[in-house]
Amino acid sequence: MKNFGCIMLYAALTALLTLTPAKAGEKLESGKDRIDVPAMGPGLWVHNLFQSNMVIQRDKPIRVWGWAESGEKVTVTFGNQSQSSAAAADRSWKVELAAMPANAEPQKMTIQGKDEKIELENILLGD
């Protein structure tokens, strides 16, 4: 068991020594030194903030965003509202629905693309 601990310590130190440390004052470049868009496959995606069983802030505009194929029309339907947007060249899309009052009745949000549909269920409006 002692050997296992030594091996793990050696592996950890080796990994730390092979990393290139950032230089003081070095400026990060968007898209080069950090990831601005999460990894995702092709097709329709909604940001992972939006889930079934969530609570949306009442009396505030409802902003929903995600990614789809460039140029694809995406329609978000929630309650009695529906808004559409086309995905930009970077695949991003966003819509804004009008503010809604608190509601204890669970609702469904549908995000519809050209060939795919995402349905989020049991969504409430509140604090």
Molecular structure report:
This protein has one helix at residues 2-18; strands at residues 45-46, 55-57, 62-67, 73-78, 81-86, 92-97, 103-112, 117-126. With 127 residues, it is mainly β. Mean pLDDT is 81; it is low at 15-23.
Summary keywords:
mainly beta, 3-stranded antiparallel beta sheet, 1 helix, 127 residues, 5-stranded mixed beta sheet
Determine the strand fraction and express it as a percent band. 35-45%
The multimeric state of the shown protein is: single chain
The spatial strand order of the largest sheet comes to 2-8-7-4-5
Major beta sheet summary: 5 strands, mixed
Q: Indicate the low-confidence ranges by residue numbers.
A: 15-23
Gap between N and C termini: 52 Å
Shape: globular
Series of H and E elements: HEEEEEEEE
Alpha-carbon Rg, integer: 22 Å
Tally of helical segments: 1
SSE-based structural type: mainly beta
Write the topology of this structure.
Layout (H helix, E strand, L loop, with lengths): L1 H17 L26 E2 L8 E3 L4 E6 L5 E6 L2 E6 L5 E6 L5 E10 L4 E10 L1
Parallel strand pairs: 2-8
Antiparallel strand pairs: 1-3, 3-6, 4-5, 4-7, 7-8
Characterize this entry briefly.
This protein is mainly beta. The chain contains one helix and eight strands.
